[in-house]
Amino acid sequence: MGSVDWAGEWLSSLIWIAVTSVATVVVVAIVGLLLARFTTWGRQVRRLVGPWLHPRGDEGWRPLLFVLALLVLVVVAVRLNVLLSYNSNGLYTALQDLDAGAFWSAVGVFAVLATLYVTEVLVAYYVGQAFVIRLREWLNERLLGDWLGGRAYHRSRFAPQQVDNPDQRIQEDITAFAGTSHDLSVGPSGAVNAVLSVVSFTYVLWLLSGPLSIAGVEIPRAMTFLAFLYVIVVTVIAFRIGRPLIRLNFLNEGLSATYRYGLVRVRDNAENIAFLRGEPLEKRTLDSRFAAVIANYWRIVRRNLRFQGFNLVATQISVVFPIVIQAPRFFAQTITLGDVQQTRARSGRCTTGCRSSGTPTTSSPPTGRCSTVSPGCSTRTPTRAGSPRSTCPTARTA
């Protein structure tokens, strides 16, 4: 398994990257359309960023080119990780065989792969941050225009359903939405990377796996099946433990914003408060709001203690689990030390990928909060000139 024809592998990898990139773009487009059509979250995202991604929007094709570049970079990163796993296998196998020539050859290949990997990470970071900045600029321009247009900032004060702290949402939630959306989708630990990693490394793990007898029953390719069984069990438990953190963190942001607004209110009404000697009343109000923030934060700490504790235990088990499974085959000399090392690394990668795509994060993109800043906005229809025109009633956009 550790023997790789590196002379021909570079061309094979380029072909793999090209084919996989096309397939990834098609799958992501289909999944995105299905989410936008059949899920509430998808419809909120479409309402917020659909006009930005539209080729006839203000930005033209640039946002779609950003997405395309990020998807290709994710594919390149996954392929480099696969190649690094083969290189690591060859390195450890050369050490086991006391083969100095093979060892130094593997070191040379590693130098090339490491250079490519570092370059890919830096390029992906720059492109990703440029994507986030452009999205923040566009969202800020749109929501700020909706909030100020038609004096919606004033009319919203008399609306039946008040939107709390729209000014702070424009500043904070746009930043959170842009950054989190990138991280959870096309970021280094995002859903696309996780799915591609699981698919790619499952194939590698399948080749490394062998039969294992449990209670007299022989399981073919046992390492693959046991790894995924472990992932499923761990993911289900982690999901049940970590799911409340989404609600608690959402509540924390709202309570913190309310407390900040109370502080700003004191500053804005300083003359009236001083004239009426209202300091004790304002102090009690601020104390009650801050107490709510602290009480909720303690709930977050207690829940995080359970969530992080379980994750640490699961991670430590996953380090030794593949080695224990492969140890009998290694002692029987049917696999090499490099195979064991590659199995451990790839099993951990599959575990991380599955849990990244299946376990709830402790926070989520504030699509609902951003959309309520402009609740009347549907998708903006393009004008004949190609620029988007708002179809939302400005009296409700605060």
From TrEMBL:
Organism this protein belongs to: uncultured Actinomycetospora sp
One annotated Gene Ontology cellular component of this protein: plasma membrane
Membrane-spanning residues: 14-36, 64-82, 102-127, 191-209, 221-241
Main location: membrane
GO molecular function, one term: ATP binding
PANTHER family from the UniProt entry: ATP-BINDING CASSETTE, SUB-FAMILY D MEMBER, LYSOSOMAL COBALAMIN TRANSPORTER ABCD4
Location(s), subcellular: Cell membrane
Domain spans labelled ABC transmembrane type-1: 64-340
Biased composition (Polar residues): 373-398
Record key words, sorted: ATP-binding, Membrane, Nucleotide-binding, Transmembrane, Transmembrane helix, Transport
Protein name from the UniProt record: Efflux ABC transporter, permease/ATP-binding protein
